[in-house]
């Protein structure tokens, strides 16, 4: 079962992205962040960035931590969220395939060993990051409701989460 851990166990986990601070990232030697959008920063059905998101980006910016959104969503969805705030992004990323992760690392001109992927899904965000050799942080989904493309992944994810929970590897605390 070591393979499950290698590919699907995140380096760390937080209940929400907002708790991931520049200080924490720096303490782990992280200089750049790739983050998922849907159900990581906002609900998948929320078109625009909110105060909480903008504040978080600002605090990363002020601490010289680069952030790029890497989403499997469409140009419309991701552009509408990012363009008004000059947030860098890659849309239709086809996570868990590795190319968009590598492209984002290149865009930020960073080393992949100093880059972390933040996301709400083991099957896409974490799996892709672990394959490429990035650190990964799992967060709880912002909303219970998912887009249609995620329903099957969540079923597999529940099995993986149960396994990690039983091994004491991921415990959310309630
Ligand atoms: Mg997501």
TrEMBL record:
CDD domains: HAD_BsYqeG-like. SUPFAM superfamilies: HAD-like. GO terms for cellular component: cytoplasm. Pfam families: Hydrolase_like, PGP_phosphatase. It comes from the Bacteria. Transmembrane segments: none annotated. GO terms for molecular function: phosphatidylglycerophosphatase activity. This is YqeG family HAD IIIA-type phosphatase. The lineage of its organism: Bacteria, Bacillati, Bacillota, Bacilli, Bacillales.
